[in-house]
Structure formats: C-alpha cells, structure tokens
C-alpha cells in the first residue's frame, strides 16, 4: 500500500481573534484601549500542528469540518498559502472560532464558541479511511468529532498521536484519545500528580510514549517505563506569547519520531520548537524549518551536555515520584 502522506492531521481547524490585554486575570472595567489592535487570523491546534509538520518537510494532509463562511475561507487561504492539502467537510454550524486574551508575559485565556458544532457531527468514514490508508501516521485533535474516527484510523494501520492539552487526568471526554494513541502529549497544568497520570495512560492504553509539557520547567518523557526530565530550552528572543507552543512541540517531536530518532532526541526537538513558538506573536503563523530546528537542537544538546541534569532522570517503573 502506498503511503504518500507522512502525517494526516484530523480536526483542530479554526479561527482565533487575538486581544492583547494589560494583565490576566483582566479586572472589570467599562472599557480598555487595546494598543496593539485586535486581530483575527486562521489557526487553531490542528492548523498549527499541520503548519509545523509542513515546515519540517513532512508531507501533511489536514481534514476537518469547515463552514461556508468568512472564517472558513481564512482557514482555506492559510492552507493554500502554505501548500498544505486540506479536506474540508461541510459544517452548517460554521467554522470553529475562539477569542484569545493574551497578557504581556505571554499567558493566554481562550474563549471557545461552542455554538459551531452539533452532537451528531462526524467526519465521513470512507473519506477518513481513504486518507488514512495513504498516510504513515495520524495526529488526532481532541476536537469533536474526531473521537469517532479513532477506530477507522486503527483499522487503516496508521500509528496515532494526540494532544490532550490541559487534561485533568479524570475528564472522560479525553480518555478515548488517550487510550488509542501510540504517542500522547499533554500539559502538566491541570494535573495534581503528572507521573501517575502518565503511567496510567501507558498501563491502560496503547501508548509507547507519553510527553507532559511543563512550560518553563521543560517537559517529562515516559517511555520504556522510565520517566525522564527534558530541560526547557532558552527562547531565541523575548517571550511574547505561549499560543501554539504545545502544537510546535508536538510537530517537532513527531518529525523526529517518524524519522526513527530516539524519544529523548524527539523531545529535545519539541523543546526547541516550543521555545521558538513562544517568541512568535499570536497574530502571526510561523514555524521552524528543518535546518533551523536541527541547528538549534544540536546547540541546545551540546549546552545541556555540559550542565548537571535536574529533576527526574531515567527512573524505572516502580519508583514513582510526582513531577509537579
């Protein structure tokens, strides 16, 4: 069977309106003057993963539901501009949209419009199957209705990854994604015991690798029963926005993983790409290209080799300790 696509990205297409605010939480006031302006641009989690993969030279195809509306046209235009194949399934409710409030230190508060979806939304099974059968790997966003595509993807024989974002470890909505994927990404932000959650994903599901990102504290990698701390990488410029950092991390990790790199190096790639993403304003869509990623990763790896490691390093299963 020909696998002409490296990564099929499912879901996560949409539009964000970016509002830079003086602080978060934002105190109540009758009005605020937004000096940087208010910008609307295409790009939600699936879009950003697809952009990152494409910039790294991986043949990428994106499928999601889009409305016949101005927001949908922004998403289509972004894919045309970047040369990323897009299958747009009609969405009568309209294209997904959100408002992101961004503070001066780069933190973000997202307000999602849940009216642009229906409970019975589905990606057409024959279309998903055909795309999956011509792909090496599928990255599945946790946006509705991607959960219903998981069995089809498994039957097609592709490996799977997903990003659970700020899962609390208990919300049942996330479980089908967590337990079906070979590679699982998530954030430590809402976890009281990240290590327990990571090991639970491995023990109950199919994951070979689980990565928990922890912002300025780096990330934690669980593979072959060992939990390893991945130090944060110093951003190449001032941090202006954390939006898209997790998506950049996932794309760079998958670049390494699909090229047969060991998981620790894949995580190093992710840390480099995530740090770079924090220097890109939310109003822009930019991703590291392959040569720049490899150069920055080599420099970061050399610098890390000369420093003592902190945190958790290669502890075997059976000696648990919270990573928070």
Automatic annotation (TrEMBL):
Name the record gives this protein: Carbohydrate kinase family protein
InterPro entries: Carboh/pur_kinase_PfkB_CS, PfkB_dom, Ribokinase-like
Pfam name, any one: PfkB
Species the sequence originates in: Streptomyces albiflavescens
Taxonomy of the source species: Bacteria, Bacillati, Actinomycetota, Actinomycetes, Kitasatosporales
Keyword Transferase: yes
Gene Ontology molecular-function annotations: kinase activity
Residue numbers spanned by region Disordered: 300-324
Annotated ranges, domain Carbohydrate kinase PfkB: 5-285
Keyword vocabulary terms for this entry: Kinase, Transferase
């Amino acid at each position: 069977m020909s696998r002409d696509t490296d990564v099929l990205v499912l879901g996560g297409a949409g539009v964000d309106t970016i509002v830079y605010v003086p602080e978060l939480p934002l105190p109540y006031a009758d009005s605020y003057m937004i000096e940087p302006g208010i910008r609307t641009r295409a790009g939600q989690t699936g879009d950003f993963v697809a952009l990152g993969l494409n910039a790294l030279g991986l043949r990428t195809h994106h499928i999601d539901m889009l409305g016949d509306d101005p927001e949908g046209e922004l998403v289509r235009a972004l894919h045309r501009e970047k040369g990323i194949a897009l299958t747009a399934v009609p969405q009568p409710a309209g294209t997904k949209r959100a408002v992101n409030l961004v503070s001066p230190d780069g933190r973000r508060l997202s307000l999602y419009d849940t009216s642009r979806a229906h409970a019975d939304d589905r990606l057409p099974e024959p279309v998903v199957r055909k795309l999956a059968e011509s792909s090496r790997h599928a990255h599945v966003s946790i946006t509705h209705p991607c959960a219903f595509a998981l069995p089809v993807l498994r039957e097609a024989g592709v490996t799977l990854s997903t990003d659970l974002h700020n899962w609390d470890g208990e919300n049942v909505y996330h479980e089908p994604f967590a337990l079906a994927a070979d590679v699982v990404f998530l954030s430590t932000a809402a976890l009281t015991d990240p290590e327990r959650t990571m090991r639970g994903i491995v023990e109950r599901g199919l994951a070979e690798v689980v990565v928990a990102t922890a912002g300025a504290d780096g990330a934690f990698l669980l593979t072959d029963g060992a939990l390893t701390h991945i130090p944060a990488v110093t951003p190449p410029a001032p941090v202006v926005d954390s939006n898209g950092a997790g998506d950049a991390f996932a794309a760079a990790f998958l670049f390494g993983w699909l090229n047969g790199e060991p998981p620790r190096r894949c995580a190093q790639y992710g840390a480099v790409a995530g740090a770079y993403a924090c220097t890109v304003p939310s109003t822009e869509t930019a991703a590291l290209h392959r040569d720049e990623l490899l150069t920055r990763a080599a420099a970061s790896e050399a610098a890390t080799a000369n420093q003592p490691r902190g945190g958790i390093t290669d502890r075997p299963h059976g000696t648990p300790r919270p990573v928070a």
